[in-house]
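Researcher:
Attend to token order:
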Amino acid sequence: MKNIDLSPLKQAPRLLLEATLKPLQGTRFQPTGFPDLGAATYKLPESGTTMVLVESAQSVANRLESTVWDIANNQLVQALTGLPFVQVVNAQGEPFTNSILEAHRLNSNYIVQDMKQPFLKQIKQELEIDPEKPVDFHQLAVVLAKYDFNSLLHGVFLAQKDLAGGRFKLARALSGFIEAENVEVVSSGGVKNDRVNPQGDAKKGGGNIPFHREEYTAAKITAYFSLDLAQIRGYRLGEAVENLLIALALWKVQSFLQQGLRLRTACDLDCVGDLVVTRPDSFSLPSLEDLTEALPELISTVAKQGVFADPSITVVKLGKS
């Protein structure tokens, strides 16, 4: 692979990356909020430094997944053409959703809601489920590589009773989160104005309604990413698949940092400097441009080995038994 050397990762259990971020404009940012909690703030035990969780692992996972989808053209980005996924169509045969856009990937209720579907019957058969034996996670990896390759990076939980009693569960191999340290709260607010009747019923959305809001400033904002190389090797799918998964994961992370850091209206961040490898320190990180150039060949190599479904896009009709 031109300009890409993955050999330093052969024996490493994890690949750890981090990047320094800052607000794109100004100094304030809005961290992710949680129901009945708000922003997740905490103090470090020894130093007492005040921290805030800017973006959770589950949110970063969703954002990494979305990097592969070309929204404007409603298809995979060009460099990733050929990666398998499941396309759900409606009764008229029009695109409805797919396993890349769905939060639970192959386990989307739009895909696995009816075990009478031919596709689900096929998956059950290919998983070679024996109720008298432990589940075969290598076979699960084989099926995911065939129909929904991204699930090998982002995990899946096939919770259906008919699929080994819901025991097929694969953790994320690629994960990330964003933290800010030494933070201060910026309290502000505003008023929702009713230009017709300022004294209108607020319970019905009328009237002038004042509100408060909290944003934050920080001495440092850091994005962290982890790729579980041991898990990828544990799939036992061969070197070509391993190389593709690693390159794809690196492409997702770099693409997210270059194009996906507008997390919210009041949280638009920018990457400062380069993405840094913290483990193993012997690995030289390829650029996004080199990865984009290499991925079509990596995908083609795996496809020629018969790993992917043919055609690579499996079509499932919504509500069709």
